[in-house]
Fold each of these.
Amino acid sequence: MRTLRTTAQALMFGLIFATAGLAQTWDDVGSIFAGRCTKCHSGPAAPLGLDLSTYDSAISGSWTGRVIVAGDAANSPVIRRLKGEILPRMPFDGPPFLTDEEIALISAWIDAGAIDGESKAGPISLPEVPRPGEPVNFAHVERIFLQRCVKCHSDNSVLGSPPEGLRLGSYGQILVGAERLVLVPGNPEMSEIWRKITGISSPRMPKDGPPYLSEDEIRLIRDWIAQGAADANGEPAPIPAGREIRLRGILTARNAIDGAVFTVTPGTRIDKPPAVGDEAEVRAIIADDGSVRATRLRSR
């Protein structure tokens, strides 16, 4: 038994030393941060000012203090967040979270002194922001959703669960919505996402605003939706035929709410018929051609 225990201990210490030997400089761990962290934690909108895109910014930490304690991984907030010892666990869009091997690699680097090294990797490169009228795809807007929306709208929500089951951490989740659509490809005026970030629908989002999204960010999301909500490869989203939407706002015409046009048919149920200028609610479904057909219209 003693021989077996001694052998097991030797193997364990060997694994620890081997892991530590794999991560001696920033270049050894920077690719992990770039792959899973910097979509949120980079640039001027990085949550709590924590930018993990370069060695210097990562070592500087956040507005609340350092997240990397050189020589002490166990007490480094970044490791405790990655392990879920401090909530919410990171990355916000997990699961999946980082693997045990990835966390062990970062821990080994910190325990070894969190050394910079030669920094061959350099800062990450972000997609260039398209100008008005230029093509926009999901790669251009993803960071906005990750930096400003997933803290609530994810399985890792600071609220305990995503409101109304709406998850906004990936392209597929945004297209699916929740019980109802929140995005109608080609039609931002009918898309609850755009209505919420502009404040046309209340409460305005993100809920922790102000500050809300900037004019450039709102314009970028509007252009993305108007152009068909293309994926990161530029492929437009399919028409979500048969899916339901529900909007509340001001009836600006017999068949428009806040300027968003819908079709009224003989089959549309109208309760307490609203007049133009009244607060109203419209429930509708998306037709095969992408148009919006009202199923119910009522005063609110």
Note: The radius of gyration is 24 Å.
Amino acid sequence: MRFGFVDRILENTPLLVMEGREVLDDNLAKADMTRQDLWAKLREANIFDLDVVRAVIVERSGEVSVLYDDGVQRTMSDEPLSDVRR
């Protein structure tokens, strides 16, 4: 097992790996992900432009959530990110 995976399981908290256009490389390493893994997840989410990304989170289960702006003017509540480690 790799340490990033073990740390994430032990801490059992979602981990922010991208905020807006900014890739959080230290958190990517903690999640045992590469930038190539991140790009693949963005492609899976049909992200064509990094400007629409609001956040990418590695969930407790190991799944990756991509939160993005779908073009509708709205603000993002703080609650969905309240338990996410930055």
Note: The chain has a mean pLDDT of 87.
